[in-house]
Amino acid sequence: MRPGDPKPKAGSARTGPLPLHPMSLGDIIDGVFRLVRANVLVLAPTLMLVALPFQALIAYAGRNNQSLVQILSNLGSLQGQRSTTIHAGDLVLTYLGELGLFLVMPVVAGMVARTVAASYRGEQLSAGEAAALGGRAVVALLVASVLGHLLEVAGFCLCFLPCLVFMAFLFLTGPAIALEGLGPMAGLRRSWRLVRGRFWPVLGTMLLGILLGEVSVGIVSLVPDALAQLAPPHVRAVIDAVIGTAGSAFEWAIYANLASLIYLDQRIRQEGLDLEVMAAQAR
Fold first, then answer.
1. Would residue 72 count as lying in a domain?
2. Which of 104, 126, 246, 268 has the fewest Cβ atoms surrounding its Cβ within 10 A?
3. What is the pTM of this model?
């Protein structure tokens, strides 16, 4: 491509033009939200259905938590201190819900990666097609996620910085497994090799994308959270479950699209993936 020539694009009418060239930070962040918007009808119902039972457990376990009004009215009183006691059963339900969200997250990443790859080909997967990962891929994603998080925990115990290092090096494991049919160890190694040459840009883009996801969810849920604080306990639990489900689905979509775009960017830079896609489009 000569200087001044338009940069190649992929995508469809639904997604709009997607960058099919080495991507800048702005290209990746814009692409993440472009893909979330384009695939919302495919991904949102599936992701919310996956998150709902676990968020319902967490919300039910927190049904007896004090509302903001109760906290302010009981401030400093013995009754208020006693009412903050957490029951063992509710604690178990909370941990089960969090564990479930942890386990399904890598599977969700695989589903989203398949949807992103289809969008780059100008195709549109149905919800069923996006979810059709296959048993081998699901097991590989789960095993790789557990191994990766064990490395991150080990890094965190040594110092916070090694934890971030492992997070960045293993951030592309989900797309690698879902799109290349790799096993868990091969997926971890593949992510490590793709990130190795551009560690700092990948780390910075990953952290910025995660921050934007957290801020976006916090802003969107601010008003519903405030309204939930005024509701009776069981009504508040229902509202919390709905908010948590929508929040989890949106966060998963942000993070998985981010990982998928960084994965594609690294393959374009290192392996000429853009040329392969353009050759397939020309057939």
1. yes
2. 126
3. 0.87
